[in-house]
Every structure is written in C-alpha cells, then in structure tokens.
Design goal:
The chain is an alpha+beta fold. It has four domains: 153 residues, no CATH class; 55 residues; 131 residues, no CATH class; 55 residues, no CATH class. The strands form seven sheets. Strands 9, 10, 11, 12, 15, 16 and 17 form a seven-stranded mixed beta sheet that branches. The protein has a six-stranded mixed beta sheet with strand order 1-2-3-8-7-6, with helices on one face. A hairpin with a 5-residue loop joins β16 and β17. α1 runs parallel beside α2, α5 packs parallel to α7 and α6 runs antiparallel to α7. The protein starts with a strand and ends in a 7-residue tail after the last strand.
C-alpha cells in the first residue's frame, strides 16, 4: 500500500543541530520510510521529536502510525550505553522500555526501540535525531529494517500461499467473487438467449405480417388497376353529393383546394344550448390535410377578438380539431372528399364547453329551434369588464383601481378616474397625506 502522508513534527525540540539539519532530517526520514517499509499497510505516519523521558500519549490507531523519538513508556530514566549494529558504534543515553511491546535490540541485545501494536506506536529509546550525521542516519535505517523484518513482514505471511495452512481462507473472497462473476455471466447469457429467442419470434411475426400485407396490397393494387379508369367518375359523384347536401350552398374548386360554403351554422354546446355561429366557409386541401374555417359572425373568443367559431382562431382560420384531427387526416389521405366535408360540418355544429375555448360559445347569440334569439352573445356576468379611463382597454372589475387627477382648493382629491394596474403604475403615485393615488402631474402640498 502506498503511504499517502508522512508528517515530521517539531513537537518539543528541533531535529538536528540547526535549521538546515532539521530540513535534511525531514527529507531523509521521508525517503527511508518510503523505501524501507515496503510491507506497511497504512496510509499516514506521524513522527514527533520529544525532549526525552516518559511519554503517555495515545495518538495512533489502525489508520495512523506514530513514531516518537527520544521517548519511552517506562517511568525509568536513561542510562549511557554503548550500542552497536553492523560497523556502527555509538555511545548514547538509552531509556528503558516498559516491556509491554515488541523490543528492538542492537547487535549486543541492548534495547533501542519498542513497538506497541495496539496503539500502532514506535518509541525510539534514544535521541536519534539530535545531530544529522551518518551514524544517526544508519541507526534510523537499522530500526526501520528491524521493524520491517520483525513486525511488518510476518504479517504478510498470513496471505502467503506458500506458507499458509488454510488455503481455503485465502481463496474465500476470490472464490466468492469468481462464483458471483460466473453467476452473472450465466444470467447474462440466459438473458441474451431469451432476447435472441424473442427476436426470432418477433421476426417470425414480422415476416407473417409482411407476407399478409403483401397479399393484401397485391389484391388492392389489382383492384385499383381495374378501377383506375373510374377515378374521374368517383370524384364527380362525390362533388355532386356535396353540392346537393342541404347544408351546403356552394362548392368551389381552386387547383387542388376545395372551398365549401355552409350557410347559417348553429353550434350545440355540451349541455344542449343552441348558438348561431353564422355563415361559414370551409377550405380543404387534401394534399396536406390542411383545413381552415372562415365566417361572417366573428366574436371575441378564446383565440382572438374576431373568432368565427369557438374552436377556430380568427387570425388565420386555424381550428383546434381535438380528437377528429386524426379522422380528417385519414380521410384526406384517402381523398374521401364528401366524408371530409361532412366531418368538418359536424365540427362546426358542436362546441365542447368543457374546455376554455369551447366555453367561449356564449359570446355568440343563443337561439331556440326557430332561430329566435334567447340571449345575446357576449353577456357573461362572471366576465363583466370595466373600461380603463386611461388606456381604454376593458378589464375585470377586480383589475380596475380608483385614482384622482386633481386636488381641489380644500386639499381633497378630485376628478376620480378608473384605471388599470399598468396605467396606475405608470401615471399615478400614492400620496401618504391624503391616502390616495394622485396623477404624477399634480403637486400635493405637505
């Protein structure tokens, strides 16, 4: 595992004899730890340089290793000792270990460091960082080598296939992962197999439908080829049917466009009321299934101020066809002109008052079966409006506000006006003294 962070703390005393030696130690400590502790399984190491003696800190854990220099957990003091490892001989003051951890010794068996695994703590029992020289550098490397050999390396053997006697434990996670991977692969193969089977069945169905369609179209083509000469006759018959219909006054043909004139159209609401819509003109283009409606009795409807029908936008004659849109498209695609005209007439004779557009049918005159006006259009108590005395537009009563254009000689507001909110905002200002909106051109004393 890669060590993410090695932090050297100048906790009580500086490392080395001066600041340059301190930084040299910091670099060397980082290099030796990363190069020597190859089997360490931890990401953070903190090193603290102490002034000497007993320390009772408990800072390490399984995620963090602590190295204390010149420290011990024993209450006993230090003794001057001659320590040796390899060709290095040093005379130093060495503290006694408390013998509760793993003790590291020199070549002569003198304790020089102690590791406490529970707290993940390594105490170096002498002042190893007081001077930056070869002996101290080698001493620190020696301690790290012993730590790697005695503490870290044996831990790796539990994962060694060569040394373990419980190979089933080592392979447990691998076995589970391989089984799970194999299970997923089997499931994926089964899923692909099912998809292939489904695709095959779909292709079979598609082939069958294609074959059936081919037979149907072949029969249709044969019939159409026989009836091709009857097209002219069919068109003439349909046009004759249209002009003889009692609701059609005339039919014009301009290029590929048909214009049907429908006099005195009456629309029935969802609740059964009858309204006089006026004389209507239907313009049909079967080529693109475009239908437009125009009339002579436009009213202020849902779409514009002069809609020819509750469901027709008076600006362009564009209808909101709703559910019959698909029917008209299908009839147009089959050139069923007569049925197309009748469908359009049926559209004009109905007003769906359950939607906002159809509800505007009350803007047309309500009549009885004889055509006598029962109620004039445009009368709707729920939508009565008042004219803005400023801009002239009509607004619901709750959108009209009282204002004043003058102040009389007694200082009271005068010349009352009714205006909309926009005009009040632009041309009037609220005056706290008289508690009213006054025109911006009027000067108010006080």
């Amino acid at each position: 595992m890669t060590i993410d962070r090695i932090e050297v703390h100048e906790y009580e005393v500086m490392l080395g004899a001066n600041r340059d030696e301190h930084f040299a130690w910091v670099e060397d400590i980082n290099n030796q730890i990363r190069n020597k502790l190859i089997n360490i399984n931890i990401r953070t190491i903190d090193l603290y340089n102490l002034s000497g003696g007993q320390q009772l800190h408990y800072a390490g854990d399984q995620q963090r290793m602590i190295i204390y220099s010149n420290a011990t957990r024993s209450p006993n003091g230090a003794n001057q000792r001659q320590i040796k490892f390899g060709n290095v001989n040093m005379t130093v003051d060495v503290y006694e270990p408390n013998n509760e951890g793993v003790t590291f010794t020199d070549d002569n068996g003198i304790p020089i460091a102690e590791y406490h695994e529970y707290h993940n703590e390594l105490n170096i029992l002498f002042n190893i960082f007081n001077v930056y020289n070869d002996n101290n550098i080698k001493a620190f490397g020696f301690i790290l080598d012993v730590f790697e050999r005695i503490i870290l390396y044996p831990k790796t053997l539990v994962n060694s296939w060569l040394h373990t006697n419980r190979k089933d434990v080592l392979t447990d996670k691998l076995t589970k992962r391989f089984k799970e991977q194999h299970r997923r692969e089997v499931m994926e193969d089964k899923d692909r197999m099912n998809r292939y089977s489904t695709s095959i069945n779909e292709y079979k169905e598609k082939i069958k439908r294609s074959f059936d369609n081919m037979i149907r179209l072949r029969n249709k083509v044969e019939m159409e080829e026989r009836n091709l000469s009857d097209v002219d006759t069919k068109i003439i018959k349909e046009l004759d049917l249209i002009v003889t219909h009692d609701k059609i006054s005339d039919l014009h043909i301009i290029g590929e466009k048909f214009i049907a004139y429908v006099p005195k159209v009456y629309a029935h609401s969802t609740t059964g009321e009858r309204y006089y819509i006026g004389n209507m003109r239907i313009e049909l283009n079967p080529e693109n299934a475009e239908v437009n409606f125009f009339g002579d009795n436009g009213r202020n409807g849902y779409w514009s101020e002069s809609d020819p029908h509750p469901h027709v936008d008076g600006r362009r004659g564009t209808p909101c066809l709703g559910s019959i849109g698909s029917t008209i498209a299908e009839l147009a695609s089959h050139n069923e002109i007569y049925a197309l005209v009748l469908t359009c007439i049926d559209f004009l004779e109905n007003a769906n008052t359950s939607d906002p557009a159809g509800n505007k049918v009350i803007m047309w005159d309500q009549v009885d079966e004889t055509g006598t006006v029962i109620r004039e259009g445009g009368i709707n108590e729920e939508e009565e409006k008042t004219e803005c005395n400023c801009c002239g537009d009509m607004y619901p009563d709750d959108e009209i506000y009282g204002v004043y254009n003058e102040i009389d000689e007694d200082g009271d507001p005068a010349e009352h006006r009714n205006v909309c909110e926009a005009c009040r905002t632009d041309d009037y200002t609220f005056n706290d003294n008289i508690d009213e909106f006054i025109h911006n051109d009027v000067e108010v004393d006080g």
